[in-house]
Design a protein that fits this description.
Largest sheet: 13 strands, parallel
Structural class: mainly beta
Distance between the termini: 42 Å
Radius of gyration: 19 Å
Oligomer: single chain
Helix content: under 10%
Strand content: over 45%
Number of helices: 0
Number of strands: 45
Length: 373
Amino acid sequence: MPSVRAVCPGDVPCPASFGGAAGIDDWGAMTLIGTTVSDNYAAASQSDGGGIAVESGASLSLADSTVTGNTVSAAPPTGRFAAGGGIFVDGGGSLTVDGSSIDGNSANLSNSIATPYPEQTGSTDVENSFGGGINLGNSATATISNSELDRNSVSIDTPRGQAYGGDPALAAGGPLTLQHVQVEDNSDTVNVFSSDVNGVSGPSAFEADSSATITGVEVVGNRMTITTPNSDAAAVGAVGFFAAPIAATMSDSIVADNTATANAPNKTATVQGAGIINDSDLTLTNVLVRNNKATANGMSGFAQGGGIWNGSIFGGPTPTLALDHSGVFGNTVSGSPGVTLQGGGIFTIGSPLTLTDSLVAHNTPDQCAGAPC
């Protein structure tokens, strides 16, 4: 987690405090079996690990256990970083979960710091919140099997600043394996001054920033909403792969009934990939992407990829997308009259798409943008 201090208005350092590991602080090799970690609360300007914190180089094995109702909060008026409401795994740590529930945890950020404010490092407006259920730092690894990540949340309220965040179920900075995992009814709610400096918020369920192997996963009914009353809003969808040119695979899975909404009534609203947003070399095998909805409400903007958005969102290597025995059905992009709508099923302008024994149909207002379907 970043430790630089912002320079607040008046050219003085913003007050800082640090909190975390409210339930368990793991510095070694820990195994929890048949255990409940619940209703713990960590709050400070920078805070992580509301339920459990796994420190750098440490490991946690969780079996037949529950992590629920835990909260990590970057508290007002100077809150800046919050990560891992249920479980936070620092860089170099590892997590193994089997037969367990990580449900109903939250990561919250709130402040009243006016934008722009400078960092001691020379950057500006660094403030974020990730991983309501689980947050994995860079190079942290996780294998999660036969488990559920449901009803977790990320909430950001910085009406004078430009915070960003998402991944209410899981933020994965290192290699990730998911096997037979349910990811349902997680929510990401962001109210900020603007998305201009730090870009998009989301995804509304989970993201993988390194190699990912995902099998038998249900990603259903997750919600991303970003609102900027007087400036620009940018959102992405339920599942994000952001590791080009590293390969990611998803098989025997469903991504359905997820929503991504950007509200910028007086400026530009953009949404990319309500179901899946891909900036990796991604292969989907026997995957159903169904009934996801991207909505952009603004004076101008775009909504792209109701089912899947495929492209280089951060300007890196060109990603690839391959569908094998998969289907993209009933997805929608919609928006205000000034918003451009493209790729109800798949948006892939500028990035390769390969379809093998797959079908893209019944999407609105079109099937594909950037490639024939």
